[in-house]
Specification:
heterodimer; A: alpha/beta; Rossmann fold; six-stranded mixed beta sheet; globular; disordered C terminus; B: mainly alpha; two-stranded antiparallel sheet; nucleotide-binding (chain A)
Chain lengths: 241, 290
């Protein structure tokens, strides 16, 4: 479904990704973990076309898309829930959701899809007329996710969906992601909450210093010593002993 | 009594300041470029209305239906030829580069207007040009009153477009966060193009109204750019009606200064307001951007 091949991305003179290759298959949930500054957000932004790679190819269903502008890539069925949510704070919840269905393909289905998003997140329906900027952190993340779903993505990219949220909210966001996965959507999740994301994901890649340094099944990586030491920290080691 | 009469005239001219400023505010708010040639575009709109009347006696209010779209197209061309290269830069670089382009355009349009139409002052003088509405002892020039009402109606229409229409919302989204807008599948380049052309059309319509209510000459461009800039700073970005209110405020301030300080101070009072607002409330009176 998505193939990334030897991707090189740089910010000015600063190289951010050095030859990153990875694959996401239809219906698969894949995690991307790694320390801050490893290039995780850069990779997601490049996939949706916000950044243009210096070298390498991104193929969507066999077609090279790395030279396309974001709106073309979104139209093909990719969506990104960006880091920090990036809601339109001065617009209402409803307006944010409707903007999520701007792409032509999504326009036709937008009424039905709005119902669906409201079914998944009833809280958004209650807050429909409120400005997005006035929502709580958890509600904002629900809106960011709902807005991305309005675009009817087949591949959903998420950048740190649990950042700054209370554990209960994180749990409910992850249960929605699990539900989307069961319905057949492909997910590619960048996440600091490694425990949660590796439990959800079938496979995971480890990105360090702009390079993929490890790959494996989610559950197996959870048992991996390097992963445990680097990303799960002393807490996890304590729990396993 | 003189004061009240002046204040009435102040409100009337203020509506046009507001209309001129709304166009500038739209392009600045969405594209983050400062088009200092905005007043020149207004001047061109004024000449368009003037010549349509002088050559074919087309009613100036009717000719707005042609001048608006013509300036919209000019906006498309200017964006495509010049400003599309500016918006590819980072935000600080956008302002600087747009200033250079804007000043260049100002010189070109100004000189072109003098060559083509001479430096004479012109005004559209219709049969009803002298008509007034009497309210008690005060007189309200009918043409200027119609201009004010029309300016308000146009801003209301634009407001509804931005609030409800699919592309209007795309413009607002792009103004707030262009990257997030791109993630919604909004072609950001096309919203820039649309916003710029709409801003240009607003300038043209304002110019048409200026040519009926007041007078035009090749040199009014820079004056109107200045007025529009003062109003944008005064009102802040983000609201068309804020611009309209800011324009009227400037008109009232000018009128007051004419009565108490004399005509020459008219141009000074706006700049003083400009400085005060920048010092005390840099986001503008009605602005919501910090």
């Amino acid at each position: 479904m998505l193939e990334v091949e030897r991707l090189e991305v740089s910010y000015g003179a600063l190289a951010a990704l050095h030859g990153v290759s990875l694959t996401i298959r239809p219906g698969e949930t894949v995690a991307l973990v790694g320390p801050n500054g490893a290039g995780k957000s850069t990779l997601l932004k490049t996939i949706v076309g916000l950044l243009v790679p210096r070298a390498g190819v991104i193929r969507w269903e066999g077609i090279p898309v790395s030279a396309e502008p974001p709106h073309r890539i979104i139209e093909r069925g990719v969506a990104l829930v960006p880091e920090g949510r990036r809601l339109f704070a001065r617009m209402t919840v409803r307006e944010n959701l409707e903007l999520g269905a701007f792409a032509k393909r999504a326009q036709r289905e937008r009424r039905a899809q709005l119902e669906r998003v409201y079914t998944i997140f009833p809280r958004l329906l209650e807050r429909e007329r409120q400005l997005a900027g006035s929502l709580s952190g958890g509600e904002q993340q629900m809106l960011a996710l709902g807005r991305a779903l309005m675009g009817l993505p087949r591949l959903l990219l998420l950048d740190e969906p649990s950042l700054g949220l209370a554990p209960r909210v994180v749990e409910s966001i992850f249960s929605v992601l699990a539900e989307l996965h069961r319905e057949g959507m492909s997910l590619f999740i960048v996440e600091q909450n490694v425990q949660a994301v590796l439990t959800l994901a079938q496979r995971a890649y480890i990105l360090e210093g702009g390079r993929i340094v490890g790959e494996g099944e989610g559950q197996r990586l959870l048992q991996d010593d390097h992963v445990r030491a680097a990303y799960l920290g002393p807490l996890a080691r304590g729990a396993s002993s | 009594m003189i004061l009240t009469q002046q204040l009435i005239l102040g409100v009337l001219v203020g509506g046009l300041y507001g209309l001129a400023a709304a166009g500038l505010s739209l392009t600045f708010g969405v594209l983050r470029v400062l088009n200092v040639a905005h007043g020149e575009l207004l001047m061109l709109g004024g000449y368009g209305t003037f010549w349509l009347f002088a050559l074919w006696q087309i009613d100036p209010f009717l000719s707005l239906l042609g001048v608006g779209p013509a300036l919209f197209v000019l906006g498309l061309v200017l964006y495509w030829m010049l400003f599309q290269f500016v918006v590819k830069a980072h935000e600080e670089a956008r302002i600087k580069n747009s200033l250079l382009i804007g000043f260049g355009l100002t010189l070109v349009f100004h000189t072109l207007a003098i060559r083509l139409w001479t430096a004479d002052e012109r005004a559209v003088t219709t049969d009803y040009a002298g008509a007034v509405v009497k309210i008690g002892v005060f007189t309200v020039p009918l043409v200027r009153l119609s201009s004010l009402v029309l300016a308000f109606a146009i801003l209301t229409a634009l407001h509804l477009f931005l609030a409800k229409a699919r592309w209007g919302r795309a413009i607002r989204a792009t103004a707030e966060d262009w990257e997030a807008a791109a993630l919604m599948g909004i072609p950001v380049g096309r919203t820039y193009l649309l916003a710029f052309a709409l801003g240009t059309a607003l300038a043209g319509i304002a110019g048409g109204l200026v040519s009926v209510s007041y007078s035009i000459s090749p040199s009014i461009g820079i004056e109107w750019t200045l007025k529009a800039l003062i109003v944008v700073v005064l009102a802040g970005l983000g609201s068309l009606f804020g611009s309209f209110a800011g324009g009227i405020l400037l008109g009232l301030a000018e009128a007051t200064s004419v009565v108490f300080l004399g005509g020459p101070y008219r141009e000074v009072v706006g700049l003083v307001l400009f400085l005060i607002v920048l010092l005390v409330r840099p986001q503008g009176l009605f602005g919501d951007r910090g």
